[in-house]
Amino acid sequence: MGSRPLAAGSSGAPAYRQLSPEQVQQVLDYIDANLQRNITVSTLAAMCHLSSSCFSRVFKASTGYTLCQWMMRQRLQRAQVLLAEPGRTVVDVAIAVGFHDQSHFLRQFKRITGTTVQEWRQRSVT
Prior knowledge:
It is a single chain. By secondary structure, the protein is mainly alpha-helical. The protein folds into two domains: 5-64, no CATH class; 70-125, Homeodomain-like (Arc Repressor Mutant, subunit A, Orthogonal Bundle). It is 61% helix and 6% strand. It is built from seven helices and two strands. Strands 1-2 form a two-stranded antiparallel ribbon. β1 and β2 (14-16) form a beta hairpin. The longest helix is centred in the middle third of the chain and has 17 residues, at 67-83. It is elongated and about 45 Å long. It holds the Pfam family HTH_18.
């Protein structure tokens, strides 16, 4: 199953509104399996046989999130799980979820969750 065409554009190529459920699942599975890597739009677009710009549009239409928002959300959700594990350092967690800069990880964690890593860890232990 492919994407659903809406109408032919001026170039005669079909325009796409959303990814098929199978494509969404394939992309989300790939993201989950590769969060620690640098995932590019072009890689995911190629999986769906779409251009990068078309993929970006239909990903947002299909999930309600931009690719960047989705990956950040997934990375921070996984980080919360890893941070609850005893012995895990913040650096280890940051790298495990795809951040190459600990300070960027800490800023994004606070921005998205509204709490610092230290505060979150204290609450998750109690």
